[in-house]
Structure formats: structure tokens, C-alpha cells
Design goal:
Number of helices of chain A: 0
Largest interface: A-B, 27 and 24 residues
Shape of chain B: globular
Mean pLDDT of chain A: 91
Distance between the termini of chain B: 41 Å
Order of helices and strands of chain B: EEEEEEEEEEEE
Helix content of chain B: under 10%
Low-confidence stretches of chain A: none
Number of helices of chain B: 0
Distance between the termini of chain A: 37 Å
Oligomer: heterodimer
Low-confidence stretches of chain B: none
Structural class of chain A: mainly beta
Order of helices and strands of chain A: EEEEEEEEEEE
Mean pLDDT of chain B: 92
Shape of chain A: globular
Largest sheet of chain B: 6 strands, mixed
Radius of gyration of chain B: 14 Å
Helix content of chain A: under 10%
């Protein structure tokens, strides 16, 4: 089975800190995604990448950046963490740039980030 | 812009009974996909079922089935013979078919399902 691993399950940071959330997938998937999950809002796409060094903004990219230097690793960066970035962050991957009906996202177990 | 609405933040069902989770969506497109994802307490999102909009036949996966009403833009999930392991947050999601961009996957706000023993 595909495994998507997020480096931390829980993380507590201070306002203004630079925060790195790491995600690694082990199935050579082309696409990788970062979502943010908030109660009552569902999942919202922050950034995605369909190839090494390639990235595209999602629906809520403000305050975030990403890095994909290797195919298996996709990092989400909070340059200066703020309290409104307290949330659950989910990483996902899929294996085709152009989705078909039988494509599906494989998710990590999430990182609950608290910014104090 | 496409929107997905789940109007039931919480639902509960007795074990072995049937429950239906509601989802409506708004789109001007005619060709798209719809999905139900499950997020158990482990937080690992799992694809439950998917439906192609151009197919009139409702999708079925074991105890899970959908009622897809294209004209009404409704996509409900029915869980039959509910089991304790079905307890989870369920998300409805939409994606346009013709776009190659993954950003078009839009999620609803979720329904927390409790299964009572």
C-alpha cells in the first residue's frame, strides 16, 4: 500500500516562528498536495505540486510556501507563524498529473499545529 | 465557483441500522466526479465511493451506496448495516472532469457520524 508520512502528529509553535511541515510518500507519485482542515470548513487546498520543483497555488496560499526538491518529499513552510494558522494540516499524493476517475488521493495522518 | 454543502454537521445511527448522509453541490459544469471520503479517528482519509456524473447508475461499494440526483445536484451516501467501524467524519467532494488541474477538488464541511452500540 501507498504510504504518506507526515513528520509530526502534533506540533506547538510560537507566533513569528518559521515552521516546516514535512511529507514523504513512498510510491513515486507525481502529485503531492497540502490541505488545511478546519471545523465547519472542511478541507481547503493550500498548494500542490505535480513534479519536482513545480508548484501551484491552491485556494488559500497566503502565509504559506512550499518546497519540492525531491519527488518523494513535499514541504509546507509557514514563514512567520500566526495564531490563525492553528489548524490540522493534511498531506496527500496521487500518481498522475491528469486525473482520471480511478485516480484517488492517498492521505497522511495529519499534523495538528497549534500556534501560541 | 463550485461549492459543496453538507448540511448535517453530526449524525448518529444505531449499529446494524441504515443511515443517509446528505450532500448538495453547486456547479455550472455538466461533466464531473463526486466522491465520499471517510476520516476515522486515526485521521487517515480513505476514499469510500465515487460517481461519474455522466453515469445514471448509482455507485455501490458493499454496504455503501449513493443516491445521485444530477438535476437536483444532490449526492447522498447511504450506509447499510452500520458497524462501529463506520464511525468517522465523512466528506463529500467534487471535481470537474475536463480539467487537468488537481486544484478543482472541492470538499464539503463534513458530517461526523456516530455509531451507537
Amino acid at each position: 500500500d501507498v504510504k504518506v508520512t507526515q513528520s509530526s502528529r502534533y506540533l506547538v509553535k510560537r507566533t513569528g516562528e518559521k515552521v516546516f511541515l514535512e511529507c514523504v510518500q513512498d510510491m513515486d507519485h507525481e502529485n503531492m498536495f497540502w490541505y488545511r482542515q478546519d471545523p465547519g470548513l472542511g478541507l481547503r487546498l493550500i498548494y500542490f505540486s505535480y513534479d519536482v520543483k513545480m508548484k501551484e497555488k491552491g485556494d488559500i496560499p497566503e502565509g504559506y510556501s512550499v518546497s519540492r526538491e525531491k519527488k518523494e518529499r513535499f514541504s509546507l513552510i509557514l514563514e512567520s507563524a500566526s495564531t490563525n494558522q492553528t489548524s490540522m494540516y493534511l498531506c496527500a499524493s496521487s500518481n498522475s498529473r491528469y486525473w482520471a476517475i480511478n485516480e484517488k488521493l492517498f492521505f497522511g495522518s495529519g499534523t495538528q499545529l497549534s500556534v501560541l | 465557483a463550485q461549492t459543496v454543502t453538507q448540511s448535517q454537521p453530526e449524525m448518529s445511527v444505531q449499529e446494524a441500522e441504515t443511515v443517509t448522509l446528505s450532500c448538495t453541490y453547486d456547479t455550472s459544469e455538466s461533466d464531473y466526479y463526486l466522491f465520499w471520503y471517510k476520516q476515522p479517528p486515526s485521521r487517515q482519509m480513505i476514499l469510500v465511493i465515487r460517481q461519474e456524473a455522466y453515469k445514471q447508475q448509482n455507485a455501490t461499494e458493499n454496504r455503501f451506496s449513493v443516491n445521485f440526483q444530477k438535476a437536483a445536484k444532490s449526492f447522498s451516501l447511504k450506509i447499510s448495516d452500520s458497524q462501529l467501524g463506520d464511525a468517522a467524519m465523512y466528506f463529500c467532494a467534487y471535481r470537474i472532469r475536463t480539467s487537468g488541474s488537481a486544484r478543482q477538488l472541492t470538499f464539503g464541511s463534513g458530517t461526523q457520524l456516530t455509531v451507537l452500540p
